[in-house]
Amino acid sequence: MTVISPTHGWRGRLLHVDLSAGTSRAEEIPGDLLRAYLGGRGLGVRLLRDSYTIDPFHPGMPLVFAVGPLCGTAAPTAARLAVVSRSPLTGTVSDCSAGGRFAYRLKAAGFDALRIVGKSPRPVALAITPEGAEVLPADGLWSRTVGETVTALSGRGSVAAIGPAGENGVLFASIMMGEGNAVGRGGLGAVMGAKNLKAVTVDGDRPTGVADAGRFDRARRDVMRLFQASPVIFGELGIAAYGTPALVDLMRQRRMAPTENFRKTVFDGSGNYSGPAIRKGYGAKNDGCFACPIQCKKSARDGRHLPEYETVSHFGALNGIADLHAIVRSNDQCNDLGMDTISAAATLAAWGECRGRFPSPEDVERLLDEIGHRRGDGELLALGSRRVAESFGKPGLSMSVKSLELPAYDPRGAYGMALAYCTSNRGGCHLRAYPISHEILRKPVATDRFSFSGKARIIKLAEDANAAVDSLVACKFSFFGATLEEYAELLSATTGEASTPQSLKEIGERIYLTERFYNCANGFDAKDDGLPGRFFREPGSSGEGIEVPPIDRARFDEELQKYYRIRGLSASGTFADPDFLSRQP
Amino acid sequence: MRDQIAKYAERLLADRSAAPGGVAFAAQDDVLIAEGEPGLARLAGDVLASLSCLGLCAALPALPFAEFLVRRAGPGESRIVPRDTETRTFLHDIPFLRREELSTDPAARIARLLGNRKGVIAEGIGIVANGAVTVEQAYINYSSVFHAAFVKYLLDLLNDGFLLPGEEEAFREFRARWLKPLSAAGLAFRAGPLEHPEEVLDEVAAVGRYTVGRGLVDSFFGNISYRIGDVIYISQTAASLDELPGRIDPVPSDNSSTTGITASSELLAHRRIYEAGRARAILHGHPKFTVAMSMLCEETGCQVTDCWRDCDRVRYLADTPVVAGEIGAGGLAKRVPPVIAGPGKAIVYGHGVFTTGRTGFAEAFEAMVDVENRCREDYFRRLTTAGR
């Protein structure tokens, strides 16, 4: 075991909390583990090593909040954390990255990670300070909305809280940061709720030093120069100007905006909730993550958080709704109830198609409330689209992979995305490999979106790189401009230990394969790495010179097998080496 | 993969950055393939096998400038730091390996450097560049290293003269054989003003091809646009100017749509140039002599240390204004429009040239050719004056 400097990058400590026993203790994290897994997603995944087969709602299942070595420094977009556990929605290992001040303050409290196990006999909140954890009674907060909870705890630093959805075991419940950032995907809010943990607050003031300030400043300037050179980031039509809804018009133009539960790929009303429309309707002032120069998250003039691209598109096109105000209201509801907007909207769309009628804006308002409180139709809808579709005897109408509802990029319009939805370790997610970056946004270079050629290797490389990014932890949007080259330099300057893009990608590969191993141990294999049949049978909405045919299943299968070979997996997507995990640090 | 390798191997020869018979690429999908000159292909495959990248290019440059830079470097130096914008923004620096360092296991040594940078100069071998995601990226990175080495060598010669045996002869050979007379002769331009989008798309694509064909830009750099009324038709980001069909974004001036999020990083500069003058067409390239000459500043006692970003002076190369300003939102869009309206041309420090046309692209293209020719002449005059 080697020692790390507790002042440069890593702290070298985690806080372990046992809610069953009501105890906590600080533990040293070996330097070798931090070097091998960085922090964030990687560290969280490593900390599940002894518990990855436990049921997500079992008290023994850890819920890990982990920051990265760049958190607390001036590295752009790095004041983030990952929350890691096993998803009750998918059964896979699950992590979710979020901004806000919580990550920064957790690091400032002196910890790289917070690991919570057990189940409190009654509702509680955790208050974390440099001295450790205090367990606070939270009976009075139970059943409160996220907003009410954050307000009640605002004197204790930054807050991460669940809403009624997390308390009630909604399988896609989120954990919300007090600043409005969501740990959205995978239902980790329900894991928190199962522990009777309403909220966590963190406060601290310990600075994070960097080993070589001059080198760090040079690397930071390099990153900022690349941000400024990126039209997607700082272009006048980019996400800094319009937030991620800048993608609405583009996805419409590329004819890959999922519409009416993916029956179509163009929605005529999408202009009502485009980036410019939101700006016109709500002002869209900057309200982005702490210490982020991009500021893609926007809020309305009255301070309400405005929805992201995925949210507007899924509460919009996916449900056939063109009313911006209704969409913003749905976003508000999900944030207050503590629910993932993507899964909530996609579950409603699947339900709508199963019943033969998509919900109206008024229906959506009622149904979201019923989901959050698990009453009426919400009792079924709280289980996510797969279980909803199965209950109707129409499993093919759940547009999900591994039970995680697909986001707002139709895979018939981007074949790398089609493959990446399936190989993602947390289910149908766009962010694991993020091929939209090159297939649509032309960063770092453009690839042919209607071709599988080379995509297996590209997806593998991107999954590894992004696993490292999620472990630093930095925002994926940084990489519309910068590369791992500049972030490796930031890491080297921070820790004083040499890091390169190549070494980061190798770390990312270790993290990815560890996750895959966990999933395989829980029964996942090639049968789970498939897209809904619709995408192979039905075309998208062709027109304007763009053909959107069904995906060629044989070609997809061929590329998936290539992917397995590149990963060193068997043809069934499993590990030939049962000792893989034991050989990892 | 093989079609990509063939395409970019051809491009290296077409743009005369690599020596015929001295090109190899490697790419890995589920299997690793390496094609081209057998020795280089073997090396490319060996290097790529130990990198987390998809593609790799190893080629012998058509000019010995990169090799000379390595040999001119002082003992103990291990990288060159060209000052052009492509290097400053994307490459940062270019590591090199000397011949003696490559005597054992060259692939491993090259791979170690490429694990941290996009391109490396290997003395006696050539330029080796990786492509993280595509084969094209390996070509782009090779091209950027070639461009950066070219520009740096020009400047180093002005400062230090010929230092190595055979260097002067090689440079003379370069001037006599590699450097072609530059003109717009033989190119057909629509007269303009153009009023129909189809015409504009065709013309922009044609002029993009001319710009690459005449060596006024390298790999996927440069951009081009035309304005009809309130719509700017502009090349997309990361688009090679000779492959523009289907890669031109119509961008409305009122920002009522954000489909132009994929437009060139210089969209804002183009828009401000249109707003500031009477231009209908804008062309932006990175001609090498202009890039080099833009960095020859004879100011004395200047306090500015970041010339690319902070210099607020307007200098002149002949009658062409030179201003500072970084790419995209980095200041170029603020400094170019005020100076380009009159002369229809402006140089950006260490970066390249913007030229405009009042009706069509002929004026813009000829202006760019003229700027580069004047910079060439001025360069060789200075070289002679310096006794080189």
List key phrases describing it.
heterodimer; A: 585 residues; alpha+beta; Aldehyde Ferredoxin Oxidoreductase,  A, domain 1; six-stranded mixed beta sheet; 16 strands; 12% strand; globular; B: 388 residues; L-fuculose-1-phosphate Aldolase; 2 domains; eight-stranded mixed beta sheet
Summary, kept brief:
The complex is a heterodimer of chains A (585) and B (388). With 585 residues, chain A is α+β, with helices and mostly antiparallel strands. Chain A has 24 helices and 16 strands.
The CATH class designation of the largest domain in chain B is: Alpha Beta
- Strand proportion of chain B, as a percent range, falls in 15-25%
The number of helical elements of chain B comes to 13
Largest sheet of chain B: 8 strands, mixed
Question: Could you say what the CATH topology of one domain in chain A is called?
Answer: Aldehyde Ferredoxin Oxidoreductase,  A, domain 1
**Terminal Cα span of chain A:** 11 Å
Low-confidence stretches of chain B: none
| Class from secondary-structure proportions of chain B | alpha+beta
Mean pLDDT of chain B: 96
The most extensive interface between chains reads: A-B, 57 and 51 residues
Describe, in plain words, how this protein is organized in 3D.
The complex is a heterodimer of chains A (585) and B (388). Chain A has 585 residues and is α+β, with helices and mostly antiparallel strands. Chain A has helices at residues 31-37, 40-46, 102-108, 146-152, 164-167, 188-194, 213-229, 231-234, 239-242, 246-253, 275-282, 309-315, 324-337, 341-355, 361-373, 378-381, 385-391, 415-423, 436-439, 455-472, 484-495, 501-521, 534-537, 553-567; strands at residues 13-18, 23-28, 63-67, 81-86, 93-98, 113-117, 124-129, 132-137, 158-161, 175-177, 182-183, 197-202, 285-286, 298-299, 400-401, 404-405. Chain A has 24 helices and 16 strands. Chain A starts with 12 loop residues before the first strand and ends in an 18-residue tail after the last helix. Chain B has 13 helices and 15 strands. In chain B, a hairpin with a 3-residue loop joins strand 1 (18-28) and strand 2 (32-36). Chain B folds into two domains: 2-157, L-fuculose-1-phosphate Aldolase, CATH 3.40.225.10; 197-385, L-fuculose-1-phosphate Aldolase, CATH 3.40.225.10. Classes of the chains: A alpha+beta (585), B alpha+beta (388). Chains A and B meet through helix 7, helix 8, helix 10, helix 20 and helix 22 of A and helix 4, helix 6 and helix 9 of B.
